Mitogen-activated protein kinase kinase kinase 7
Amino acid sequence: CKKYERILYHMIGTFGVVFKAIWKGKDVAIKTIESENEKNAFLVELRQLSRVNHPNIVKLYGSCNNPVCLVMEYAECGSLHNLLHSADPQPHYTAAHAMSWCLQCAQGVAYLHAMKPKALIHRDLKPLNLLLVARGTVLKICDFGTACDIQTYMTNNKGSAAWMAPEVFEGSNYSEKCDVFSWGIILWEVLTRKKPFDEIGGSAFCIMWAVHRGTRPPLIKDLPEPIETLMTRCWDKEPSQRPSMEEVRNTMNDLMKVCRPCRTERYMTTNGLDGTIPMECLTLDHQLQPLRPRPNSKESMAVFEQHIRMVQEYLRVQSEIAHFVRRKQELMSELEQDQREQQTSSRLIQEHGKLLEDNSSLSAYYQNLRGTLRLIQSQNQHHS
């Protein structure tokens, strides 16, 4: 691996230090380790990134042994966390952009969970590990150095408590559904632009205790029912009750059919998440969103209110359609179950009928044998 030409800045990751550099004429991120204690996480990330290839996962270009480092794709827009909470001034964005970021995250994680021979679990999904490129329109999952050993994981990831599934910090057996929990918290965070459990304060253990007792972020006012249902299902305490990431991805794809961000903008439109326009209106395509009314204009306000009512009616119909689709799927599943049970019942009836026929045949054969035996006994007595 060639030595990178120059270092422009650095930032701290879950392990090691990340530098921006120029390598073979392109901007790259160079991730190095600071101590031998971080080498295990380095090897985990190297092994896992070497296995994956997906547009929503940061690319690995190569690695070096001396110095020990990873050469990775550079994300020029920084992390989703910085866009949400640290940028100054904070860029505005619509709920449609938030939905797009969450869909892309779900696509990347669904890819990881579908890997063979077993699912690859990220274990540390949070906005700090979600990078943005292409003027903020494309999301990339990064930081695959999470330790498999639960004790090491808990020690190194106390900053991840707000997104951590309860079964993980409780020391229980956990599956890829822990990533689904984290995704649900991320969805809430990007829609509200608030840090989850920020009101709790204190240490990470205070957050863990609250999550263990069932505390979740507050529901979002005027959030469309299909989005709210998906979000709350994802952070269910029981992993078995959470949807798979494949289902999350498919549901988000359906929702995004009426929720596309404007690709020509950089994160934002004039209708931010603040102001008088309801959240539910912001889930529409930018061109379908109502314009802010002119001050002191009754006609403009009347048009605005009519537009809001039309949006609400449209989204109500969309919610009903989504409900009916889910109900149809449930009924189809129940019908398939009934058909399987009927087939099993029919097979059992046939087997029972055959057993009755066999029993009748055996009974007749038994009676014939008894008759033959009596005849033989009678003949023997006669000869005696």
The chain has three domains: 7-73, 80-289, 297-356. The chain has a mean pLDDT of 80.
